[in-house]
Amino acid sequence: MAMKPSLTYLILMAAGTVVWIAILLVVLRFHPEADAAAQLAFKAQRVELVSQMRLDLASASEAEKSAVMATTDEDSQAFADQARAAAAAVGRGRRELEELLQTRGTKNEVELLAQFSQAFAEFQRIGKDLLDMAIQNTNLKAYRLAFGPAAEVLDEMDAALSRIVAQNVSSTSPDARQVMLLADDARIRALHIQTLLAPHIAEESDRKMNELEALMANDDAEVHKDLDDLAALLRPNGSADLEIASSRYAKFSEIRTQIVKLSHENTNVRSLLISLNQERKVMLMCQDALAALEQAIQEEPVVGRKTPVLPR
């Protein structure tokens, strides 16, 4: 025969049910607030990530510009390292944010992050090319050669030819006038070559650089002809000053070849143009995508809260 539950058992069962219902009511009463707090914390975490990414992106862009504008290899390299470190920080933030959005992000937020990722990949590609060029400083090195060693040896050549002219001013030799004309012509043409070096270094077009080199080549041929004709006129005794002028011009020609080569590499001019145009445009695209993503996160509704927008 089945036994009926005792009164005590029924009372305990009833009491247990009451306690369970009470606990459930408490959970239902306070859970919305706990969930809202969790939503706000998750929102704040993502907003902070996006804000930091925007700061790191701006830092990378500024460091790249500083690398381009630096006047020494050491400074260029230091700024390039800073730019790469800031860009790497952006990349880490992007990956962390991507994981968070895959967990609880909206479709719009995922799409906005994908837009940023695409623009950021282009930013990194441009930044690599820009920094690789900036740290070479070929234009700065060309300027230093042009206004340093090249100018020094040309001054020595000019001084030697000036002495030859001075020696023949009062000379009664029938060749004196011709000697002065040749020496002056060699001086003028050599100095003209020097004046063409700076615009060559600053030029961004290979075509215009080639045109300047054609002018230099024409002057160079005339300088060599003048020096050869001078040597013929000053025989058999020769001239110590002419030997100095010839050797100094030969050295100038060697340095000029280095300058032209560096100038054609044009890394400072090219990196500056990239920085002002391509890099700037893609950086703004990245910032716009991040700003839109931050706004989307800010506008997410939070259950149990009337004002979901976080303070900026």
* Count of distinct strands: 0
CATH class of the largest domain: Mainly Alpha
Written as H for each helix and E for each strand, in order along the chain, the element string is HHHHHHHHH
**Rg, Cα atoms, Å:** 39 Å
What is the residue-averaged pLDDT?
A: 87
Which stretches are low in confidence, meaning pLDDT under 50 for 5 or more residues running? 9-28
What is the CATH topology descriptor of the largest domain? de novo design (two linked rop proteins)
Describe the SSE topology:
Layout: H1 7-69, H2 73-104, H3 107-134, H4 138-147, H5 149-168, H6 176-202, H7 206-233, H8 240-265, H9 267-298
Which key terms come to mind for this protein?
de novo design (two linked rop proteins); 2 domains; single chain; rod-shaped; 312 residues; 0% strand; 9 helices; Four Helix Bundle (Hemerythrin (Met), subunit A)
Describe this protein's structure:
The structure is a single chain. The protein is mostly helical. It folds into two domains: 40-135 and 268-298, Four Helix Bundle (Hemerythrin (Met), subunit A), CATH 1.20.120; 138-265, de novo design (two linked rop proteins) (Up-down Bundle). The protein has helices at residues 7-69, 73-104, 107-134, 138-147, 149-168, 176-202, 206-233, 240-265, 267-298. α6 (176-202) packs parallel to α8 and α7 packs antiparallel against α8. The longest helix has 63 residues, at 7-69. It is rod-shaped. The two termini are 74 Å apart. The relative contact order is 0.13. Mean pLDDT is 87; it is low at 9-28.
